[in-house]
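If you are new to this repository, start here. Below is one unmodified record pulled from the training split, so you can see the exact layout before writing a loader.
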Amino acid sequence: MGETQGLLGPADVRDLAARLGIRPTKALGQNFVIDANTVRRIVRAADLRPDDVVIEVGPGLGSLTLALLPAASRVVAVEIDRALAAELPATAAARAPGAAGRLEVVHADAMKLTRLPGPQPTALVANLPYNVAVPVVLHLLAALPSLRRALVMVQAEVADRMVAAPGSRTYGVPSVKLAWYGEARRAGAIGRAVFWPAPNVDSGLVAFTRGDPPPTAATREAVFAVVDAAFAQRRKTLRAALAGWAGSPAAAERALRAADVDPRARGEALDVAAFARIAEYGPSVWGGEPPGPPVTAPGGAAQREASEGDGEGAFADGAGGGAPRGADPGGGGPGRRGRRGGLR
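And here is the target side for that same chain:
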């Protein structure tokens, strides 16, 4: 494995992959981080504190894990691949013996997590594949209310969608749903040369800080149902796009006017607070006939702990596709579809 301590370099990654029988290919979208400066940069951008408990989804061979261990009090690495999960503690013990005791590996699908053992995580730091990035982040924010911050690496196009503002071309379902939980922002770009093999797409860093949802009497699930409906037919006016959700175009218009939203507007013009207002007048709540203004509570707080169930809805505006698989079928990485590997 090259040097006995420190971060993984190109030769170390190739040696580990060979020993585990992993042969990454562009066709399978398997891409491993081979540049130590890149993982150092990710950890700096994550702005971790010494007392942070970090959850890392899809640690793979451990490139990022080794950089996280000295920066946090505990790192919980969630890996769906049994072979990779089994190897990670040995890698940490060999290359970071002074901090290896801070690592706990959980062999699980991140999309099925509802709680982790021990102290609950305060920060998410991970390399995520484009086709599960948004569902994983949304699920963990819903399932783990202790999470206050996140720094994830995703395909550049997905990063743009996650941080987009209302009115922009890239604004859509991921942008609105992340805004429910707090503020997402771009934290840098990652080139292709830091991966083995080099992917066909660029990557980007997205930083997130949790905040309060907009004041509303509607539950998160009700708000997200409106968001999904609005962007499923994003070229249509809200009166037409929400007809199925409301029961008819006329019912959609009544709900929109009650929420003080122009029925001729499109979903891309609305912020998360406007979607929350619309949800308050939904047929499931008011039987299709909007009453007067409801009494609101912050963010439908009683429902915040429910599971996300976003899957397809998270990509209803074309941000990606594929079944969300937590640490995934193939490790983190841009465009990766293979059983293992990915942006590690």
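Two things worth knowing about this chain: Residues 247 and 283 are 8 Å apart (CA to CA). The two ends are 16 Å apart (CA to CA).
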